[in-house]
Amino acid sequence: MELMISVALGILTTCGVFLILRARTFSVVLGLTLLSHAVNLFLFSMGRLTTGAPAIVGLTPDSADPLPQALVLTAIVISFAMTAFVVVLSLKAAVELRSDHVDGENPNEDRP
Amino acid sequence: MTHLMILPVVIPMLAAAWLLLNHRASIGRQRVWSILSTSLLVALGVWAVTAAQADYHTYWLGNWQPPFGIVLVLDRLSAMMLLLAALLALFCVLYASRGSDREGSHFHALFQFQLMGINGAFLTGDLFNLFVFFEILLLASYALLLHGGGRARSRAGLHYVIINLLGSALFLLALGILYGLTGTLNMADLAVRIAAANPDDQTLLKGAALLLMVVFGIKAAILPLLFWLPRAYSAASAPVAALFAIMTKVGFYAMVRVLLIVFGLDSAQPLNADVFLWLWPLALVTLGLGAIGILGAASLRTMAAYMVILSSGLLMASFAMAEATVLAASLFYLLHSTCLAAVFFLLADLIGRQRAEGYDLLSVTAPLTNRWLLGTLFLVAAASMAGLPPFSGFISKAWLLQNAVSHPKYLWLWGITLVAGLFMIAALSRAGSGWFWKPEPYTGRQRRRLDPARVATVSVLIGISAALALFAAPVMDYMSATAGQLYQPSAYVEAVLGESAMANGGHNP
Amino acid sequence: MVATLAPLAGLLLLARHWPQLAADDPLIATVQWIPQLGLDLSFRLDGLSWLFATLITGIGCLIILYARYYFEGKASAPRFFILIQLFMTAMLGIVLSENLLFMLVFWEMTSLVSFLLIGFNWSNRGARRGARLSLVITGGGGLALLAGILLLGNMAGSFQLTEILAQSDTLTNHRLYPLMLSLVLLGAFTKSAQAPFHLWLPHAMAAPTPVSAYLHSATMVKAGLFLMARLHPALGDTELWFALITVTGMITLMVGAFVAMFMHDIKGLLAYSTISHLGLITLLIGMGSEMAMAAALFHLVCHALFKAPLFMMAGYVDQATGSRDMQLINGLWRWMPALMLVTIVPAAAMAGLPLMSGYLSKKMLFSESLLVTAPHWANVVIPVWVTVAGLFSVAYSVRIFHNVFFNGKPRDLPIWPPKKKPAMALMPLLVLAGLSLLVGLMPQAIYDHLVHYAVMATTASHLPLYDFSALADAHTPAMMSLLAMLAGLAVYAARKPLFAIHARLPDVDAKDIFETVMQRTIRFSQTLVYQLENGSLQRYLALILLTTVALVAWSLTGLEQWRGPVPLSDLDPLVVFGISILCLSAVGVVLFHRYRLPALLLLSVTGLFVTLIFAWFSAPDLALTQLSVEVMAVVIMMLALSFLPQTSPRESRLPRVLRDLFVAVAAGSGVAAFTYAVLTRPSNSISDFFLTNSVPGGGGSNVVNVILVDFRGFDTLGEITVLGIAAVAVFAFTRNLNLKHRVAESGHSHWVAEPHPVFLQVVAHMALPIALLVSAYIFLRGHNMPGGGFIAGLVTAVALTLQYMAGGLAWAHERMRTQFRSLIGAGLLMALLTGMASWVFGYPFLTSTFAHLDWPLIGEFELASALMFDLGVYTTVVGATLLILANLGKLMTIAGPGKEIG
Predict the structure, then answer these.
(1) I need a labelling partner for B269 at 20 to 30 A (CA). Which of B1, B9, B102, B173 fits?
(2) Which chain positions lie within coiled-coil regions (chain A) (predicted)?
């Protein structure tokens, strides 16, 4: 199981990183989202993987590690805020820079 | 446990939330709230510096004892950073209140959020909480960078945001590794557990340390992670760029804190040694690049951005020497370089507004008004930046070089620093002579009035740099004690976790 | 006039201290400034500093007097007087400092003031360039000196001269002595215009003449000599000292004397002559014997006394005729007889004619040159060398006098006839010429009473007085003098052909070289910086990722075992299936990333399976959150996609793709490796504390929720702040976004603005109350069961969004009058005030309290203060999400920026 999760996280990261390195803002946003999935799952798995034992007192005798879950929840919210921000920003950039390339139509036009 | 400790986070947040709630308030009202809040922060900064001289102060949020709850820790370093940030912010908000805050929406609310993030990052003793505050300050900085709009800002902003999102992902990865292997997030507790980890785990933890170095290195501007910086800083509006002068220092702060406390407890074989091994050459090259960039800059803003890079390089290089005396000197240099970088961003705007054309471009020769006043301000700032006496630049550089002598590799630092100084003299004299000597007297019909309030803001900020030189002795004492404190991580651990923590090998529930 | 008071007062003060010079101990006064740095305000008055200070103040008085006439009727006069006083202060500081670092403060100050004074006539291009050249050279030297002095202080353990001078042996035997000496000398040489750093001095002549006379001849350029003389007792008498200083001095002496001969500009000639004399003094200091030092200081005084009046003469002529070109200025004796008479003395002294001060000092030099024996080449080379240089100095001295006042008639002078100046203007020249004469006539007295104490200070020994009568009897030096004089006259007589030859040599201007070098360096820097920082985000990201991968890989090389001791758990087929789909959809996103809509759909599949993984591995809260976030994120991205091109062009070449693939695979393997390594190691977490204390301490059985609102409520406060900032930021930067210039490739219809299917509207309207009810339920039970403010907020936001999308823009605009920004502010305030409320009870920020309540339908739940906090979270989330959506939606309207929403 651990090996499988590791490989899956590796694949998610690889896909995310590869997309981040693309030239169009939309691909980069896709990449960032994949990467944040990978990172969130990574952080989550750092509390070790437990099945059928949610961290609710009195529900099951055993319990999963609640702390990483709380951290990941925070991280999810933050990455949601960031994604929303970057999506709108890339729209704005696409309009103002006349292209949805991450560097705009001409990266040096504003260079003094 | 005094509640004053949390006010540096609460006050700006309160101000920001209040400003949002009353977002229809006139800009005048907004300014009043914003300036009021920032002034309070300055007062708090003064309190913090006084209080920190006695001992560590801790604050248990929610009254949960560390390492279980989040703890704030006020030590000498965080106190001085709080004061510095607050002072700088006060000048920036005063300058912005002369009109740049009207160029977009919600400047003051965002500005206060920014301060909240910065102050929280300085105070927190919890690594995940540090991540949260980093996100706050970053998101606020994205927004402030875009303040005023325009193509250059959009482009620089997009790059800045995406790079920092990658940085955040790396931060979380490092946090995950640390938590996975130690099961805790509190910095003091982490320190104890890392020092006690078995060698194989330590190798993995070293990987986390290097990840964190990259994360903080992106913020602190270290080669090869810094290329986003020149455009972002030169695109930002003047008061925002001036505030950003502290942002690279937040990265530096985090690096100092994490490397010295979290990874520095095991005095026999500290994990941070391997990080310093890499930091040292990278920082020296950064320093060199800063100097070259200053010489090659096309506008004063870009030049100021490279000054930020140069000072980052010098800070990191001296930090990588891993000695308390050198660190003391670099902290003093930090004060100086932050103030001066801010001065240059503001000066670029101040001068640019008085020039007939070209704003702050160095290639344009344009008549300007108030040649005398602006020229004098520029001269003093430039002399201080280039390290000419008797200003703070000279004092800080001399102290840094002097303290570095005990390190075996000091000649590298000396050589590059001094050559960088020469580059700076050449570049600044060229800029000054092209701006204040070359042009014809201003004859333009349109009257460009020099705003006395803006001038006063910049002058006082320059005055602070001069005062730093004049009253260097007490400040240096403070810095020496600060560096000494940072090289005593066990004292930090005991202050946070209690006396027995060291013996027990961390806090076991 | 007032300006002269300060130096006069200084002079008087110095005179008062004169009697104390005979005593051994220097006067020292110290005020602490920065003890950590070893930098103190510490002054020292001994023979050497007394001599220099007297020169500085004395000549300063006369220069100011002279400047009064020079600047008559000019608006720039006040600036001059301020700067010159500043300079005088700095210069006095250099010579009177006991602390070397303190001296350095003044040292750099003179460079800076000199820069301002050279650029005094700033509209002149030459002046600006000359000023920058001098600043770069002397400032650079100052940096070297800083390094040298820091090293010196480190070796000696102090920057106080008294202590340094007492440690000659320690210093000269130190491992780093060569480096330190070279750095200090670099500082001294640049300041004192020693070859090859002399280049700045001729260009400093663009300064007003009083400045040239004072700074660039009499005082500032002597600072380097002063420093060498000052440190001689501590650092001198080594082979390195001799080699470095003597050779530099010799080269400078010759270059200066030779070039001076060919200068047509009076001030240029004087500048090179100054360089040559500085070289001469340097040479003498380098020899290092006591008598050589005596000769050096004696000549230094003589030079100051004769060079200053010559400069004044040059300025006088310049102002009178409007030119300084000696090819034009000829035969002025008819018009300026008084000036001519006054000039005779200094010119003769410079040439070294008998009875003049220059004659004596030159003879001293010749006789000292004969005494050098140490390196065997020196006893032949040096005498011959100085004689040849003496020859040139005679030639140029004759030239300046003869050319200006005789040599036919003036030609084409800009101002004709010459302007008269009041007779008083000649006063300073007269005084200096008189003093110069006096030195020549009674050298013994002058030496004994003024110079001797200085020599004592520089050699740190009691030595006999210099015997001038013995000098008069020395034959070989006299012969050398005579030889130099005759040959010099011969050279002057043959000047016409020599000039012709010289004119054919390529014209080299140091300023131009400097400018070229500067331009090249700047262009190089620019190119380098442009290439590095080329505005390509892809490159920046690749660099960051590569650095990360490389550093981490390096750090993990030492790892002995990847796999830890914990046994692997069994595979569950369901998990295998889920994870496979997750991976496949992620790969699908990559494969289809150029076709955006499919890619987005695949991405939402990925998100869905992430949710399922959370649910499977006992994290219901996470699953709920991920699900609702996923919905919102996909909605936002869909909206954005409607506005962007639907496909990406194929842009990346194969090498680029391979590079990126390499980086990506490396990063992916890193994450996989870390996951595997950590998961197979035992965990030792602080979480048990939370499980134990959740109910008794936090009042809730859903530990994750209690952590969020209580144990780590501070994180949550930060988290909703982030959300709030994001929303406000989106509002702020889309407010004035002008959509008239749409992306060219877009051309896609904006489906949001189109009419909407009726059935969607109906469903949406019906769904709203249910959704609100559900979110209230989730909210309230959150503390004990999965749920909570955040998820409830998102559910509410989703429901409202659905309304928004179903009803169309106009409909939504009508109904969405809510002030979302106020909502965010209120939410944040609510959370914050809940936290602050605990202060009232004397507890830290965010301390919770709770009470149990039994509500019908929902069941028993705790009314915790955390509930208020969670309500703040809920409010902020609703406000922030809707603000983002509303503003994104606003962008979709064809009409462009409408009125503010939210």
Answers:
(1) B173
(2) none
